[in-house]
Automatic annotation (TrEMBL):
Name of the protein: FAD/NAD(P)-binding domain-containing protein
Species this protein is from: Parathielavia appendiculata
Keywords: Signal
Signal peptide: 1-19
Keyword Signal: yes
InterPro entries (alphabetical): FAD/NAD-bd_sf
Pfam families named among the record's database cross-references: NAD_binding_8 (PF13450)
């Protein structure tokens, strides 16, 4: 809660902000073309794209580093690097171009699962898929591609849904799988999109979004990783490129969007600064908590209040005698063999003998670090009792590094999807000199966010700033849609 004194100061600042614009006032004031709130995947990618187009950009990041969920832990004794956030990317041109633009090498890896499978809640060993099960998975992937992605593959470009929204997109993904015979693929979808949510309830829209044509192809082929072994190399290179165009450890105190642009009051290391921008790009999750310093309109507030999200706790832990074990969590008796939540995705060897990577999913973002650690301890104890890992592992575990990624998978329910939520959401683009990007707008996948930036957001901002004489894409309801996307959407039968 703001103090009365701070509230009074902010009220005076907001009242005078419009008069500051164009007055020549420059003390502690920074003038840019585009102010970008959020230095994660979407914000940094768009900053590089806009900078290349000749725009003056300024990225405002609350943390002391950019990169969002791209976090790493480096063991001081062994020097082994572990990505405890973003680690793999789709094998697509947009990914390759971005890495190449920043001079970061890439490597390819296959998506092979750990050989040891257990139900972490029951301590039951699960046999690996036999040849028959593997053939069933391949057949399911083919059915999914032919019957679903052939109709909805355009979702890789963004949430550009037809009106009315096809029922198949808001029915549970499990029901869609039964309809089109790809149920055997659901455990794979859940394993690669952690934490996905309960597949008996999650709308199919999100299942397709999280497992689109490029991700499906990459999963059964090759995925891209940073050639340095450290995902943060991409953001180290971006920070070097952007230099003083990034303000770290910055708090947004107030946002005033007016007819001539946007004025922000920010605090960095105890210093208050005014940012004046022609356009604002918001690249943080659009939740009411994240946007509490914004001058939200009634429609913005109504839309953002309908979002809910999950929680994801990740990091590296140490158990004496772990000896480079890797175990994956599989539900023995759950629908589609999905692990129970709250629960871990896997305990995976890191390359340092006594350390392992963990990832814990929660059905809500209203949790704390200790909740995540408690789940790890409990499941380690169960596995130790089953003889899968060293005895008393639940008591002996220590945490070398951990991070809570929240809000994670920001979504709405089936009823909102059916009523046209995403059409209303996307109609906000460009309104009040503001654009929006990130996982909530494109999908919880860096490649999808970068596609959305390149295909929709960056071209729109460039056009608004007069950086292009002619739109490269068709303009439709404040959105940039390629002719292919328009043709595909209009051709959907429902």
């Amino acid at each position: 809660m703001k103090s009365p004194q701070l509230g009074f100061v902010l009220a005076l600042w907001l009242k005078s902000a419009a008069s500051i614009e164009g007055s020549g006032y420059s003390n502690a004031t920074i003038d840019v073309d585009v102010a970008i709130i959020g230095g994660g995947s979407g914000g940094i990618h768009s900053a590089i794209q806009l900078k290349d187009a000749g725009a003056r950009v300024l990225v405002l990041e609350k943390k002391d580093q950019i990169g969002g969920h791209a976090e790493t832990y480096i063991n001081k004794e062994t020097g082994v690097v572990n990505n405890i956030g973003v680690s793999v990317f789709e094998d697509t041109d947009v990914v390759k171009r971005y890495f190449a633009r920043l001079g970061v090498p890439t490597s390819s890896v296959s998506a092979s699962p750990p050989s040891t499978l257990y139900d972490f809640e029951l301590g039951i060993p699960i046999p690996p898929p036999d040849e028959g099960a593997q053939q069933a998975i391949l057949a399911a992937a083919k059915a999914y591609s032919q019957n679903v992605l052939s109709k909805y593959g355009w979702l890789d470009q963004g949430y550009f849904l037809p009106d009315p929204v096809p029922e198949e997109l808001y029915m549970p993904i499990g029901d869609l799988a039964a309809k089109y015979n790809f149920t055997a693929l659901l455990p794979i979808m859940a394993r690669f999109n952690w934490h996905f949510g309960n597949q008996t309830k999650v709308p199919a829209l999100y299942g397709i979004k999280d497992f689109g044509p490029d991700f499906l192809r990459s999963t059964f082929g090759q995925l891209i990783v940073s050639g340095t072994g450290n995902t943060r190399s991409l953001y180290d290179a971006a920070l070097k490129e952007l230099g003083s165009s990034v303000l770290l450890s910055t708090t947004i105190l107030a946002v005033n969007r007016h007819s001539t642009g946007v004025t922000l009051l920010v605090s960095q290391n105890g210093m208050v600064k005014t940012i004046r921008a022609k356009k604002l790009l918001v690249a943080i999750p659009p939740t009411l908590q994240s946007l509490k310093s914004f001058d939200l309109s009634r429609s913005e507030r109504a839309l953002f209040s309908r979002f809910s999200s999950l929680g994801y706790f990740t990091g590296v832990a140490r158990v004496p005698g772990w000896n480079s074990r890797s175990l994956a969590n599989v539900g023995a008796f759950t629908p589609f063999h999905q692990p129970l939540i709250p629960g871990s995705r896997a305990f995976r060897a890191t390359g340092t003998p006594d350390e392992f990577y963990f990832g814990v999913g929660f059905p809500t973002d209203q949790v704390a670090d200790e909740d995540g650690k408690a789940v790890v301890r409990r499941q380690l104890a169960t596995l130790a009792e089953a003889g899968a890992i060293p005895a008393a592992a639940g008591d002996a575990v220590t945490f070398s590094a951990s991070s809570f990624h929240m809000p994670f998978n920001v979504r709405v329910g089936a009823a909102d999807i059916k009523k046209g939520f995403y059409a209303e959401l996307l109609a906000l683009q460009g309104s009040r000199n503001t654009y929006w990007t990130g996982a909530a707008w494109a999908g919880h996948n860096s490649a999808l966010v970068w596609k959305f930036n390149e295909g929709t957001i960056v071209p729109a901002i460039k056009e608004d700033l007069g950086l292009e004489h002619q739109l490269p894409l068709s303009w439709n309801s404040h959105l940039h849609l390629t002719p292919w996307m328009l043709t595909t959407i209009s051709g959907v039968k429902h």
